[in-house]
Automatic annotation (TrEMBL):
Pfam families in alphabetical order: GcvP2_C, GDC-P
GO cellular component: cytosol; glycine cleavage complex
Domain Glycine dehydrogenase C-terminal: 772-889
Cofactor list: pyridoxal 5'-phosphate
Name of the featured protein: Glycine dehydrogenase (decarboxylating)
Family membership: Belongs to the GcvP family.
Function: The glycine cleavage system catalyzes the degradation of glycine. The P protein binds the alpha-amino group of glycine through its pyridoxal phosphate cofactor; CO(2) is released and the remaining methylamine moiety is then transferred to the lipoamide cofactor of the H protein.
Source organism (scientific name): Galbibacter orientalis DSM 19592
HAMAP family linked to this entry: GcvP
Catalytic reaction equation(s): N(6)-[(R)-lipoyl]-L-lysyl-[glycine-cleavage complex H protein] + glycine + H(+) = N(6)-[(R)-S(8)-aminomethyldihydrolipoyl]-L-lysyl-[glycine-cleavage complex H protein] + CO2
E.C. number(s) listed in UniProt: 1.4.4.2
Positions where N6-(pyridoxal phosphate)lysine occurs in the chain: 700
PANTHER family the record matches: GLYCINE DEHYDROGENASE (DECARBOXYLATING), MITOCHONDRIAL, GLYCINE DEHYDROGENASE, DECARBOXYLATING
Amino acid sequence: MKTDSFVTRHIGPQEDDLNTMFKTVGVKNMDELLYETFPDGIRLKSDLNLPEAMTEYEYLAHLKQLATKNKVFKTYIGLGYHESITPSVIKRNILENPGWYTAYTPYQAEIAQGRLEALLNFQTMICDLTGMELANASLLDEGTAAAEAMSMLFGARSRDQKKKEINKFFVSDEILPQTLSVLKSHATPLEIELVVGNHTSFDFSEEFFGAFLQYPGKHGAVFNYSEFVSKANNNNIKVAFAADILSLVNLTPPGELGAEVVVGTTQRFGIPLGYGGPHAAFFATKEAYKRNIPGRIIGVTKDTDGNRALRMALQTREQHIKRDKATSNICTAQVLLAVMAGMYAVYHGPKGLKYIADKVHNSTITLSNALSSLGYEQLNESYFDTILIKADGHHVKPIAELENVNFLYVDGDKVAISLNEATTLNDLNRIVQIFADAAGKNTVKIDNLVENSSILNGSTRVSPFLENEVFNSYHSETALMRYIKKLERKDLALNHSMISLGSCTMKLNAASEMLPISWDEWGNIHPFVPIEQAQGYQEVLKTLEEQLNVITGFAGTSLQPNSGAQGEYAGLLVIRAYHKSRNQEHRNICLIPASAHGTNPASAVLAGMKVVVTKTDEKGNIDIEDLREKAEKHKEELAALMVTYPSTHGVFESSIKEITQLIHDNGGQVYMDGANMNAQVGLTNPATIGADVCHLNLHKTFAIPHGGGGPGVGPICVAEHLVQFLPSNPVIKTGGENAIDAISAAPWGSSLVCLISYGYIKMLGAKGLKQATSMAILNANYIKNRLSGSFDVLYTGEKGRAAHEMIIDCRPFKAKGVEVTDIAKRLIDYGFHAPTVSFPVAGTMMIEPTESENLAELDRFCDALISITKEIEALEEGETNNVLKNAPHTLKMLTASEWDFPYSREEAAFPIDYITDNKFWPTVRRVDEAYGDRNLMCTCAPIEDYIEA
């Protein structure tokens, strides 16, 4: 056996374990298991056409070589992206720390108090800087956040506006071009009419429900919007702002101007450019919109003992609850990046942020003065960090590029220069030299920055911000390092134990895949640099697209969507564009099985489709007769079927080809949700089963870490006839000949983390990918058989096999008064994160072990669940003061002088021997969900100010 091959490091079970596992599963070998798992006619007949696998050493050398093809210029392009300095203490202790990047979305709040606190800090930071009352815990990017703002305000129109079908949305022509493109892609399906114009000539007509302003404008001008907002509010026109986060340290917060919503990106708070992402967007609004706001909100509640605890609040707003009634399909956000941005504010504090903002602003004034002395006209009367110079761009550009400098060239006769926190005096002098050379004049040397000057058009901030203790306590590296560690210790991540969340694929995020994202050659590239400066990236991204084409069997891929939900939305818009190109725009019915993930119906509605739900049979499969009836009934309007394969029940449905053919026969396209692609790679593919388009979750199947709830990448892969519709970008050309508008702000979405999936495929190769899929299926079936006799598995294939996950039924335990939630919380005492609870069937758990977990860990997990069933069996009927109802048990409980429970402390905390070697202690007892929603508090203010004890 080659011990230097990556596959041996990625896959958990070793050769010596396989016979034990096969015996438990009841097969002789892997081939027999796969034969019994897959339906006839869908297995691939040959291995994937991919290069031989690289070793980890070879891969890192390969990435180093590719990195040299990226030219890291000093870039002053702006347009929402700025060079930023990631404090080393944050880079080392969060970005490069598996205790932070391998955690999942904090659905089990008791073992997620650390990142919940970090996200509460983020929300507080956003509320303070924007002057708003409520913020969520991040969105995908500024463009999609702007679209969410528009959609929310559209949904929140007055009854009279809805009755009159008011649908116009004013957009300032100062908007960033990529944001405008994303707005267009969202407006069209919802029948919102965008009207782009100059805000100074807007007539405040009653035909408008909302308006969108950029603050500062796209080329840096700072406008005083107070009069505009006042008039808009008087005319029942709700105003949304896109605001530069650093500028809000110095500018009047939009909330003080009367804004309803403020969005933007926190990229310049210590997050690498990464050729477009990932970056955490923000969304802040008034508390009146608390049940309309998209994304996740972290709130304060209490635990069983009345102690302060944190949780995700108001989850009934979200797509997994509201489904086709949801106003947003947002699921994955950008938690890891939001944590970093929040820590940037914690580290610098209000004084540090003020110093940085003043330095950037004073550098900009100093540069403007120097260029004016050379005879250049500076066109922005008021500005924060960007000046607009009247100059011949065709003359300036070649001189600048010889100096390894990028500017933004506007209309041929203007040059915009956006400065940032990394800009030094040497950088300023180099810029002045470039313009002096272009003018044929001697340069003007800058020795010092202008101080205490302000060019902000009467919009100078006077209100304080970041007054909470957390932003004024951790300004030394030692202090911040310990604070980060304190939070990390509260969270259970993959570096402690298996996280078997079904439909989430919590596999290994290998160190060799992760290392390159910290390299400057990849991190410090602006998404709008000329293509020739990003040849390393271009090679990686194009190769990854080709790899995904091979894996899916499709002809084209777009990496632009930043999450699976955005991939769904993009895929449905591509289908919509396809029908429109065939003069069949009336096709708007989307068939969706009742078992589908909540993002499916939410995405369909946002794409302008009408959802028709199809039944599932008693075995959990799509009811083909019901599907046939509805497909034929709607054959003139049928747009698409959304299907997950294997199903959300963890089964390869044998009739899948019949299902896809039925849709095609009735004029529809087949959208395959790729959430469960970890059961397909190398063994079958979406093209083989008859799909036309699918999205993939690179943060599931292809090893990008979940980061506590993001980043994610949700590329779409499409058949040949759909390639022409792949999404575009208004700044850098991407997509097909008849491309839909942008789905995300950056041309290739979150390019930086695409390196991870590129490495995953490169190091596994065709055989390794196939082996990983096979092992994921073996691990799932091993757990299924080990739990046999303790739990019933609800659904299996025709030969009794699970795919890569299975659903165990916890409903019979209700007879003893035990709910599935009690089992989930008791698992914490055993050192495990619960599997997916009550999805897709209430009262159940969905378990997905992935290929990365070894036999010993699988056995520990099974032993824990079996032990819990024995605890349930021992309960007396009606007994509520028991080890399950009181779970999880904290160290504080165990060490209290009084112990008023009918079981021992040892039974509570150490119910099984293996726990003594590796005990994980939750820091709060079971959180009170309802209390947190009734007393909503989403910032760091003292709890006494908001709720009564």
